[in-house]
Amino acid sequence: MATLQDVADRAGVSVSTVSRALHETGQVKSETSQRIRSVADQLHFSLSRSASSLASGKTMRVVYLTYNNLNTWYTSQCMEGLYTGLYGTGYDLIPYVTTVKEDLDAFIEELPSNGNLDGLVLTSFPFTEDQLTLLRGLHIPTVAIDSNSPDVFDASVMLDNKSAMYSAVQLLQRLGHTSIAYVGDLLSDRFFISSRTRCEYFLDAAHQLGYGDDNIEVFTRDDAKPEVNGSQSIIAQYVSSILSSPKKPTALCASTDYLAMSLIHGFREVGVSVPDDFSIVGFDDMECADLMDLTTLHQDPLKTAKLAAEKLLKLMKGEEVEERYTEMKASLVVRHSTKRAS
Known about the structure:
The structure is a single chain. The chain has helices at residues 4-11, 15-22, 30-42, 49-56, 73-86, 101-110, 129-136, 161-174, 193-208, 231-244, 257-269, 287-291, 301-316; strands spanning 61-66, 92-97, 119-122, 142-145, 155-159, 180-183, 216-219, 251-254, 279-281, 296-298, 325-328, 331-333. By secondary structure, the chain is α/β, with parallel strands linked by helices. The protein has three domains: 4-56, 434 Repressor (Amino-terminal Domain); 61-159 and 301-328, 3-Layer(aba) Sandwich (Rossmann fold); 161-299, Rossmann fold (3-Layer(aba) Sandwich), CATH 3.40.50.2300. A six-stranded parallel sheet has the order 2-1-3-4-5-11, covered by helices on one side. Helix 8 (161-174) packs across helix 9 (193-208). The longest helix has 16 residues, at 193-208.
């Protein structure tokens, strides 16, 4: 196995010059650096990750903080986008999943003294004011995806939930639905910020379009009975609450496609038809939404996360990010889970 000394001898330079060239310090002339790299390739020599990290002061690790299991559609899409954006840069992507408040609090508290990452990408969390203050003072470059506090971070990529929810409510109004409802996620809205944000924009859009409080309803996981656990039980309670509502909504906006499709199945179990009895709009446009003929709002988390990774790479290099805060648009895809009210 070739050593640093072997490369130096073949290239006719010192060991320290080889080290500086391979670490890309910028202290070696371009021609000399190219010659050293060519020799290193011929000898199949590469610096070890540990040696490179020690020399550069970097860990070559990027942490992705999320609240969802890694096999969910959104998180897996974000993981692929981050991986694509970081590919070929030498950085390892390390996912960190936190599903309870205590884990999130512990992670944030340890960040100032955490020397095991060079950059952080995080999704939307219900941060406290103290945590936001801590995040503002971090020495670690941090990029947020779909955060409700984008200006706290070095950069962010945001989904325009406001215009998305407006287009969904506007569609239902055009279809003649006079009583509408929003259905929150299967997770608690206290921890799942995207669902809460979409709910707020749903209500804003409904009021802007002339719906009164007597014609708007909201169903969330936090309203479920404490003893209700598991997705099927929560869906069953959602279905029961919707069907027994005195406001009698005929159209629903669900916080995700997964929830929308689960509701369709739940309605079918009790003999209720979508879209004949209820119109349903999802959110995400995951692959199976087309197969389910689901009207939904299309977003591209892979593209969003790739852009977040590109911003983070610039920050980790000490470069300026041309557009610190980027807003991504969601587009309405109309299929056959919605129809004109009868």
